Amino acid sequence: MEHILTASGICISYQDEGDKNAPVIILIIGLGAQFTVWPESLYFGLVEKGFRVIRFDNRDAGLSSSLDELGKPSLVKHWLSRRLPIRAKLPYSLDDMARDVKELMDALAIKKAHLVGASMGGMIAQIAAAKYKKRVLSLTSIMSSSSPLSFSGSNINLLVKLAKIRPRSSNKEAAIDYNVRLNQLIGSPAYPQDEHALYANAERYIERAHTNQTGFKRQLAAIAATPYREQLLKKIKAPTLVIHGSADPVMPLSAGINTALLIKRSKLRVVPGMGHDFPPALMKKMTKWIAKHAAKVSAKKAAKKP
């Protein structure tokens, strides 16, 4: 694992694998998650497909900068600020997190890259593709949304269940148990994961870095305060692939469909029975989709060179 300091003063922990002269894919993970949530099979699968692949911890997650000096935000105020004339001091926005991606590219001397974002990472990738058009070769948005936080029957039910399993203590065992139960709740009904494997993954995850609860809330506030991105997404010129599960309890399928409708000439792949996770059984297929999408764009770019 490596660290780099961006122009904005954010220390980013990242992993960089593959031929340094190969086309670059940058993986952007979701809310509160460390970059190790990206499955090894997908990560190194993309490397084997001929790409240089970078995954990193967002600010306030994993081993990247923890911005506790920015305080603990009021999620209700930030959510209401989109609807009412209420002022709420936002620690940072999703636009700031999209700028982190650009500055990571600057620091690593990467001129252009294919962006792949999951959940909140998909939102960040969408913003980056719209704001930094010349830097983004293609976009892949996985289990994400083009709209702010919204509530449906499935995710309200999920929130109630999450509240019930909230850990009573902050020790390692409680954190591991919560991580396992969380992944079971948001997992794919058609692709249930082995509990022993989930515990092994959770133990490695918690040993690398404990979840920063205030950092999680600052990221959540950034999502809550972000307005509907309809006009922004219409500006995206990069070829786009949208991947969404039919059984996602966090982001309903309609969120993926709407994202695909807003981005011109985008392609939508609906995965039957997939929830809000990366089922091992689907990683070979997902790796193939992402690699094919990025390779096609890279080939077109190479063909245009004199």
From TrEMBL:
A Pfam family recorded for this sequence: Abhydrolase_1
Lineage: Bacteria, Pseudomonadati, Pseudomonadota, Gammaproteobacteria, Alteromonadales
A GO BP annotation: glycerolipid catabolic process
The keyword Disulfide bond belongs to this UniProt entry's keyword annotation: no
Ranges where the AB hydrolase-1 domain occurs: 23-277
Name under which the protein is recorded: Alpha/beta hydrolase
Gene3D superfamilies (alphabetical): alpha/beta hydrolase (3.40.50.1820)
Leader sequence residues: none
UniProt-recorded Gene Ontology molecular function terms: triacylglycerol lipase activity
Keywords in alphabetical order: Hydrolase
